[in-house]
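Comment thread on ticket #2218

A.B. wrote:
> Attaching the input chain for the structure job we discussed in standup.
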Amino acid sequence: MRVCLVTDALEPNTGWGQYSAEIAIALRNLGVDIQIASPAEHCKYEQLRTNISESIPSFMYSHRHWARLMRSSFVPLRKATQNCDLVHCLVEPYLPVLSMVANGTPVVMSLVGTYCLPSKYPLLATQLFAWGCRRASAFTAISGYTARRFSAETGIEDVDVVPLGVDERRFWPNRNLPRVEPGLVVTVGMLKERKGVHVSLAAFAEVIKVLPEARYVIAGVDEDSPYPDQLRTLCQKLGICHAVDFIGEVNEEQKIDLYHRSSVFVAHFLSSETSFDGFGLVHLEANACGTPAIGTYDSGAEEAIENGVSGLLVNQNDVGATASAMLSIMQDQQKADSLSAGARRRAKSMTWDSTATKLISTYEKILGSCL
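C.D. wrote:
> Ran it. Output below, let me know if you need it in another format.
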């Protein structure tokens, strides 16, 4: 089976880039003959460079114009998809052009998050994506929540849910790892409003009233918007600047250390009509380090966190419930230990190999129906 994977990046610091790379590696390890169409300059995984058959223009790092993307990527994608049994589009904006160039080759569309909601974009983008959806052979969603959002908008019900995974072994490297620091709350992720950091900051302000020694470390790149400055202003308003540390972007080793140091990991995803997080990969990574995770209902976090087993789910925008969840873990060692053990089990059960195996089943089902 030869599969062409189409993605916007192969890099660990973006959602599209990380999950695309991990899926490519896992598929290759399971014996799938893969070739990749992706911007060569955004490949940070050396082991995948030889699999890139065509370098294509980036949507994420460019002008984000759907029609221009179609025009600029038409020729390289037509070349990339020749002599393949199946094409898997891992990033939604490439679907329209793939529907044009695949020339009868089945196209699988991954539904990842906000970009799977066609009506939330300019009219031309909406029409192009809807047109591509009508020609796709199958859809896979990275969470049940993502599948529900897509189905509610498009009416397409036949969607395979294929959750993302984590390499639990990578989060226990062969070196001295830091111990858990009591009272340390950690968040990892780009500082954008849908990550809900303003809610978790407000919740932490309640926590510190009970546990004055508590600390909150927030790691992530500032989004190009007023939001990061608003968060710092909020800290001043809440009087918690002395206990909150914005440390910016971290490398993989620093991120792993942060997960191991934290007694609680929180990513308070917020969903709206126009945006949402499709899967709580950061929650699952924290779990791989044995750290209980707090996330929100009605978001992709529902797929990553097993509520009451590997972490806790709270309602969105509920400051009190978020504060109570943090305190319940930090003040009850027995509960913390139980959730930590459950977190490790959860991470071990959700591997990239299991993700790739489910995708292969989808591929075989499609190819079988084409015979």
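A.B. wrote:
> Thanks. Noting for the ticket: Residues 168-349 form a domain with the Rossmann fold fold (CATH 3.40.50.2000).
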